[in-house]
Amino acid sequence: MNYCSHCGEKVTLIVPPGDDRERYVCSxxxxxxxxxxxxxxxxxxxxxxxxxxxxxxxxxxxxxWTLPAGFMENGETTEEGALREAWEEARAKIDVEGxxxxxxxxxxxxxxxxxxxxxxxxxxxxxxxxxxVRLFTEEEIPWDDLAFMVVGKxxxxxxxxxxxxxxxxRSEDLVHPKGRDWKPP
Amino acid sequence: MNYCSHCGEKVTLIVPPGDDRERYVCSxxxxxxxxxxxxxxxxxxxxxxxxxxxxxxxxxxxxxWTLPAGFMENGETTEEGALREAWEEARAKIDVEGxxxxxxxxxxxxxxxxxxxxxxxxxxxxxxxxxxVRLFTEEEIPWDDLAFMVVGKxxxxxxxxxxxxxxxxRSEDLVHPKGRDWKPP
Lengths: 185, 185
Ligand SMILES: [Zn+2]
Ligand SMILES: [Zn+2]
Known about the structure:
Two copies of one chain form a homodimer. In chain A, the strands form two sheets. In chain A, strands 4, 5, 6, 7, 8, 9, 10 and 11 form an eight-stranded mixed beta sheet that branches. Chain A has a three-stranded antiparallel beta sheet with strand order 1-2-3, with no helix packed on it. By secondary structure, the first copy, chain A, is an alpha+beta fold. Chain A has helices at residues 78-90, 149-164, and strands spanning 11-14, 23-26, 32-33, 38-47, 50-56, 65-66, 69-71, 94-105, 110-119, 130-136, 170-173. Chain A folds into two domains: 1-35, Ubiquitin Ligase Nedd4, Chain: W (Single Sheet), CATH 2.20.70; 38-173, Nucleoside Triphosphate Pyrophosphohydrolase (Alpha-Beta Complex). Chains A and B meet through helix 1 and strand 8 of A and helix 1 and strand 8 of B. One zinc ion binds at residues 4, 6-7, 9, 26, 28-29, 31 of chain A. Residues 4, 6-7, 9, 26, 28-29, 31 of chain A line the site of one zinc ion.
């Protein structure tokens, strides 16, 4: 950030009065510009003993397999964001059964949420951001060609929980040793 | 948003090529400026048969009672954000027992998360954003003077779940009929 999005003057990185972190503050209108983590909402689409994955047509991780997921937009709920992504990336419609996994990735300022649900129809097909969409049994999952660690972890939880038929909501942090600002006192 | 935070030139609100929503796009450097929902992370601090509430020293909802909560910051996990807020608003330290409630508020582009946990000490006291911090039994909760609907809902879930001793993670949408952009197909 170089300029104030409100008035167009230069911003400086300072700790505002009463705050304890650096923020971009406008040198002219004094607006404080906050930056906050973003939410990635996605689905774990299930059909019988299979799950749906998409092969990515975009960077990052072009050609790798992923669960449909993307940045949550203003004006929607987390679940609507997840359903929208399933539609956009796989033309898939899902009957949601519940929130399943939540991951914090503090080093990249992201929170990922995945909803578990069954495909309500089998007429899925690649959307513009996918090269291919298909169903995989547990044995067929391309573990070495998954796009993101949160996808692998969500799939592993699912196949493990499927044994018992209980799918408790799972919360996990994926933390690099670097890039951390604050620890609980 | 009026100006590009990257180059300082004017932005215009248009639907970028390949997108389906209006974004602020720079007329000079062509940067697309996305705006996304923000996360509010908070705690439900418990001691014996009581819960901790803070009386707000700031707007909005000055003088009303709330659970400690606030905007999640870059560089932290959701749980760390919740613990930080408990410390900042109530000088309270919490042993977290799990994620308890998640609320989407699409009309104001917010997602609220509350962690359930026990106070690890009783030396809490008001931080700079609180007028008063105290413990309440269920009978003492000032239901008519709570600051936010998500606080009341989290407390009601807790007192109901306490009967059984089971505290399943609860996900809920607080949706106004207006202000919605997108519905699942
Ligand atoms: Zn300014
Ligand atoms: Zn620009």
